[in-house]
Design a protein that fits this description.
The complex is a heterotrimer of chains A (about 100), B (about 500) and C (about 500). Chain A has about 100 residues and is of the alpha+beta class. Chain A has a domain of about 45 residues: Orthogonal Bundle (Histone, subunit A), CATH 1.10.20. Helix content of chain A is about 35%, strand content about 10%. Chain A has three helices and three strands. A two-stranded antiparallel ribbon of chain A has the order 2-3. Chain B has an eleven-stranded mixed sheet with strand order 1-3-2-4-6-5-10-11-9-7-8, with helices on both faces. Chain B starts with 18 loop residues before the first helix and ends in an 11-residue tail after the last helix. In chain C, the strands form four sheets. In chain C, strands 1, 3, 7, 8, 9, 12, 13, 14, 15 and 16 form a ten-stranded mixed sheet that branches. Classes of the chains: A alpha+beta (about 100), B alpha/beta (about 500), C alpha+beta (about 500). At the A-B interface, α1, α2 and β3 of A face α9, α10, α11, α12 and α13 of B. β1 of chain A pairs parallel with β2 of chain C.
Chain lengths: ~100, ~500, ~500
Amino acid sequence: MPLSSSDISRIAALARLELGAIESERMLTQLNGFFDIVEKMRAVNTTGVEPLAHPVASIRDIALRLREDVVSEPDDRAANQRSAPATGNGLFLVPRVIE
Amino acid sequence: MTKATDRALSITELHDLELVALAACLRERKVSAIETARHFLARAHQHETLGVYLDRNETVTLAQASAADQRLARGSAGTLEGVPIAHKDIFATKDFVTTAGSQMLHGYRSPFDATVVARLAAQGAVTLGKLNCDEFAMGSANENSAVAPLGHTRPVPVPNPWNMAHIPGGSSGASAVAVAARLAPGTTGTDTGGSIRQPASFCGVTGIKPTYGRASRYGMVAFASSLDQAGPMARTAGDCALLLSAMCGPDPDRDSTSLDMEPEDFSRLLEQPLAGLRIGVPREFFGAGVSTDVARAVDAALAQFEQLGARRVPVSLPRTELAIPVYYIIAPAEASSNLSRFDGVKFGHRAAQFGGLADMYRKTRAEGFGDEVKRRIMIGTYVLSHGYYDAYYLQAQKIRRMLADDFQQAFRQCDVIAGPVAPTVAWKIGEKSADPVANYLADIFTLPASLAGLPGMSVPVGFGEGGLPVGLQLIGNYFQEAQLLQTAHQFQLATDYHRLKPQGF
Amino acid sequence: MASETVPTTPRAAALVRGYEVVIGFETHTQLSTHSKIFSRASTAFGAEPNTQACAVDLALPGTLPVMNRGAVERAIQFGLAIGAHIAPRSVFARKNYFYPDLPKGYQISQFEIPVVQGGQVEFFLEGEKRSVRLVRAHLEEDAGKSLHEEFAGQTGIDLNRAGTPLLEIVTEPDMRSSAEAVAYARELHKIVTWIGICDGNMQEGSFRCDANVSVRKPGAPLGTRREIKNLNSFKFMQQAIDYEVRWQIGQIEDGNTIGQATVLFNPDTGETRAMRTKEDAADYRYFPDPDLPPLVIAAAWVAEIASGMSELPRVTAQRFVDDYGLPEYDANALTHSKALAAYFEGAALASDLPKLVSNWIMGELSRRLNQEGLDIARCPINSVQLAWLVRLIADGTVSNSAAKSVFHTLWLKGNSAVANITWPMVPVAAGGHSGRSEVEAVIDELGLRQMNDSSALGKVIEEVLAANPKSVDEFRQGKEKAFNALVGQVMKASRGKANPQQVNEELRSRLR
């Protein structure tokens, strides 16, 4: 099922990617080329098959491990904010958010 | 060839030593960790044109080497004490930048080390620096790096040392090149769809991706969560076994997908002969798509195995072709979500000019990500979006289980599965960069094991067109890394391909 | 996911201008764990910005989530408390959207398979028993906070709160009035604080309600709902819903259709207003989080948790009715909190006079606690002392009015610094002496021990009768007021120590 350019702009918006006009067109062609090979997959009969998330779950049960409710991460703000684009008074700063 | 340890060690041969031998020399105090580190740092400078290193820090490296020397003198050495290695720039390191090959993380300094990095350091390994790679591990040719390597002012395609007009493979391209060009006795890489096996094959080195969950993913910049695995690259199976044993182990406190399996000594089966080994040969791996030179080298390798007492068993992995669309649905879907954290808010690149928050997001991500990354984010976002999830993502995860079941069927009849790593040898730089889909199709043999989470290796088995190496892929059942390494090691005892090095290095 | 059809209920819900109001709630409760749901940073309130946001909370490259057992335990406790099904296997999913306070660009939540399914919350509304069905309750992580005031033209992001465990509790649209909705919310609040999974501090954001509100003519299909977000006070909840209902009805009557929207309540204006930045039908691209295998909860674990849970408030209230003969109203009030119920029960057991104890608690004691902003756990008078006070009133040692002074003095002497409630209450056998001596000491200190000696009383009465001939005459003429005046005089003459009952009887017999 081929994509259209409105699909491209919708997806780009969802993904917060700014694409120029030429880039969008190229993306459209490339994605359609890609989805041509994907179409084969859609036709496969997978009735009754459970999706496989953790690969090793194909041979054994993999369950979520739980850790004890203990605080062990101390304040490391300076190191954690070392690569922050903009901070002030310990806060991360971004352009004003309007609700 | 007399073992290097039999006589006084000449410093110029240091980089020709295999990792295991080098580790022994260090332990026996035939050479110091400092001398070793200096030697490899000099080599890095000498071959800067390769564009292999994104970051080094000599002060840090030498400090680590000095500490290693102290432990060696005290007799409290780890298994890798003083051995210099370099890390693919996907691994977070406190003491070096971590860019994942992307402008998005230009200059980023992680406050913590990846678990794999810490585990290797705990055994005494010395870090030479961070290695170039395809951006966010997305690529098969190391042509997608967006970061200028040391000694360069702009990003460069990393060349294959066997034929500099050709690609080294990817995404762990530089990790393979570093080993082939003798810039490090061992390196770390990551493998999501073949990114260790394929560059190892293209560069004539040995590499292994363990069972999914064996090595902790904590500190690995995430690409596709259910596929990413760390692994070593070096010149021999023995070297890889030593590195892998240090890298693997449970990490319950930090990685919920890491398996609760005790660390293992993957070297323990190396010396066992192969008599009786059943090598499964899937017919789907030997079809028309495989180029003649590759087919010839692989066939010769299988014949060699038979001489060592193994037996070929025909098997079938009927859904092999489906691995491509299945992988290229699942991996981008997971990646599109994993890469959402790159938003210019907390770390990494932020656009210099924007009007308001929404614009900041869009411009930051447009500027920070390269084309291949954007492409995969778009694919991933699409297949997860409303109305398409069932038909694409869910369907792909179901076929994934079927692929994994196919392997289990095959393993009823054989112990390891063998075949080519890639349909051809390394192609020319730029040859496939205009056609992303062509790159995807070349992954056909490595993707199935990735999707199933099975351990897989690449072993150098000869050369093809243009004097470029051919690798043999060995795929084992879950947790059979030791057997894979044994299989490769026995082959390497009887052959010389892994000892050859490209001219000029 | 709420059911599409709403069952017709037998209750006669009050219509608003001929419209039926339909309300469903989503409540986000912060779970009272020490560390966050997926990281080991602290959840304590009030820390300096970003000092409780570790690498995982900041979504630094390479970080991964690891699940907190305490959060799962609390979810199970909630499920047990409301009679829900605890899913033996539930799945965490990523809810993908971009917002500066959402570090990963997705929230780890639960989508198709939540940990708690079904259940109901029962409560009383104007004497009538109501039941609201729950669709589900699921675990998820809280986002950070946005501060708009500190930096001009910019917003400051504090990620301390990011990763705090939340239990999102979703009801069917079973409520039919703002009063019912608030009653539900209060009961839910009582449950989560009673069982100890949430501190219930609404000012600190521990308990946040979103109300889905729609209107329709009776019998018509469901109207389009609008969601009022982040209601964190019961008072505002009712105001907001009432305004929204009136607004929606106004729109419909004007011939406009209601568009689905998320709205915020402004307590200053008393109005709800649609939020400006709303993505058109946000596509969250939910998919199971590949970093987290499925959560498996064994039946044995659920049983272990169930056996460790104390009695639930509704059960305790019923027990107070059955065992202590309290009216439902009292039982309901006394089970407002576990501590209060424990206090009552301790006093009831030590005095054997549950109704009188209840009266004192709901009256004077509550009044004093409210006045001083104290929680029952910090009450300066402990439950055994109260038990003795009540007993000493009942046996005539001190009069009811004098007891108020005794209470006051005990209060001042008491120590409110120490929390002194245990649950379940260790019953002090009725008749035990602990506490008695303190109460008696105050009675004697204040000289309020009632005069029960009839001869002494008789003397005082004679003196009073002699001194008040006018009142005596008036009484004999039938004026009851004169009798009261005489009683008053006797009480005054005895300096309040006379037993009013006795005075009454004696006077009447002498004046016959």
